[in-house]
From TrEMBL:
Coiled coil: none annotated. This is Amidohydrolase-related domain-containing protein. It comes from Hebeloma cylindrosporum. Gene3D superfamilies: Metal-dependent hydrolases, Urease, subunit C, domain 1. Pfam families: Amidohydro_1 (PF01979).
Length: 493
């Protein structure tokens, strides 16, 4: 597959690279084998060698972007997305989350409906890579894994491991826990094996689903269970995900039950590794960030759910300054939006509020004068390359990397010109401007390029340029009308 046009990515934190008129060649296994300016001798030679492949020309006013990476979603909680956000974390889990997980474990047909729709919504929102918390029942998590593989999404699926019951005595929810640490570990091993078998008959590059060991969080796991999961991870090089220092009531629960901080519990169990992603981490301090950096542990930053369930915002700038790998998570249903674009915007907004507080009360901020805010370019890095690096992936365009890119879909075609409608049949790109009609796509308006309001004809000398300003406008107010389906590992999904 050959594509020629504009490609946009963020190779480093705060860096936006716009590759104008570039040629990208993708092989049959979905890996990028060529990327260079289209008018170079190198690109001409590559086109000559691959003359059998038609060149897909990306129309002006459109660009290709790496897919978004969502580091933290509770898949069964998608059942009640957008409701039940009125309680503190531990009561919310008992009232809503465990009830939903129980329902899906007891109803495989409902689970398949929910997870199939979840995959559809992820694709609509430009998310090509996702890390998922599931339920405690193996069969339900295999349904989740199969739904993601069938949808063509790159998914890291976690079967919950829980041997401590946190259901309150007066709860309407049934007890939601595994019988013992040994039973939980046996179930984790079985899930890892059976998840690996999904897609085993496919070429290795198209096996998109991986298992993730998932101790829910310290309050639901004995030391024996945590240590056993660490052993499974070390032996099989299996990724790990959990929650760390998330909310005031959760942190206090751990202190009361264990007598230490939950980061110490994870560290003693050898679960802080370079294969580990910990969600939230809002209550960690600088020394604890140092420990995560030393271990190579990554963080899933979930700004929206933090606003609902944490008593304080995540110290994002401090974590980035320490060199920790950080990506974004929507944390559905603790967060109500599946759209990583909202997570990007919220991450910036929260950071600017923290910076405002530092300026107003520098004596209480404890930041040594550093600017705590991040900008939209840094947020775009977190949503693409940052989250990908946390999972051992790439999230950018370079030779040897998988071609995971966002495209648009035909449902955005109505307001577009005939030329872009034809291009949409090939399911391409992120559209922000239609040069044939001289207007922006969706809610994007470019008044300096439009007609005078009478003739409806665009200005004769005005030419749209995909630059930092145009991309920032899309970042701030763009929506699903500017994007749609995607390539994952070179295949359209």
């Amino acid at each position: 597959m050959l594509l020629r046009g504009t490609f946009v990515h963020s190779p480093q934190l705060g860096e936006l690279e716009i590759l104008h008129d570039h040629l990208v060649g993708v092989d049959e296994n979905g890996f990028i084998r060529h990327i260079a300016a289209a008018n170079t001798r190198q690109s001409e030679q590559f086109m000559a060698k691959n003359a059998q492949d038609a060149i897909i020309n990306i129309p002006k006013g459109s660009f290709v972007l790496p897919t978004f990476c969502d580091l933290h979603i509770h898949a069964p909680q998608f059942l009640y997305q957008g409701t039940g956000l009125n309680l503190p974390l531990m009561k919310w889990l008992d009232t809503y989350a465990l009830k939903a997980e129980t329902r899906l474990d007891e109803d495989p047909k409902l689970a398949e409906r929910v997870y199939t729709r979840l995959a559809t919504r992820l694709k609509e929102n430009g998310t090509g890579t996702v890390q998922l918390f599931g339920t405690i029942k193996e069969e339900t998590n295999l349904i989740l894994a199969n739904c993601m593989q069938g949808a063509g999404l790159r998914a890291f699926v976690g079967k919950l491991s829980m041997d401590i019951d946190i259901t309150s005595p007066n709860s309407l929810t049934k007890t939601y826990v595994e019988k013992s640490s040994s039973d939980s570990l046996a179930a984790a091993r079985a899930f890892v094996q059976h998840c690996h078998e999904i897609g085993a008959n496919l070429p290795e590059s198209q096996r998109l689903v991986e298992p993730v060991l998932t101790p829910r969080f310290v309050p639901t796991c004995t030391d024996e269970l945590l240590a056993g999961l660490a052993e499974i991870s070390e032996t099989g090089r299996i990724k790990i995900q959990s929650h760390l220092a998330e909310a005031k009531d959760q942190v206090e629960w751990v202190r009361a039950e264990r007598g230490i901080e939950d980061i110490e519990v994870f560290e003693k169990a050898n679960l802080l590794t370079s294969r580990t992603v910990q969600a939230h981490c809002t209550f960690l301090n600088g020394q604890e960030f140092d420990r995560l950096f030393t271990k190579g542990t990554s963080i899933a930053h979930c700004p929206l759910s933090n606003a609902y369930f944490s008593a304080k915002p995540f110290p994002l700038r401090e974590a980035l300054d320490k060199g920790i790998k950080v990506g974004l998570g929507t944390d559905v249903a603790g967060g109500y939006s599946l759209d990583i674009m909202n997570s990007m915007r919220q991450a910036v907004a929260v950071s600017r509020m923290r910076e405002g507080e530092r300026n107003m009360k520098p004596e209480t901020a404890g930041t040594d004068g550093r600017n705590l805010s991040i900008d939209w370019k840094e947020a775009l890095f977190l949503a693409t390359r940052g989250g990908s690096l946390a999972l051992g992936l790439q999230g950018m365009f370079a030779v040897g990397f998988p071609f995971d890119a966002q495209e648009s879909e035909c449902h955005v075609c109505d307001p577009l010109s005939d030329e872009l409608k034809i291009m949409c049949k090939f399911k391409l790109l992120v559209h922000i401007y239609d040069p044939m009609t001289g207007v922006g796509v969706g809610c994007l308006d470019y008044f300096d390029l439009e007609g005078d309001g009478n003739s409806g004809v665009s200005r004769p000398h005005a030419e749209f340029a995909i630059n930092s300003e145009a991309i920032e406008k899309w970042w701030c107010i763009g929506d699903v009308r500017n994007r749609g389906t995607m390539w994952v590992q070179g295949k359209k999904v």
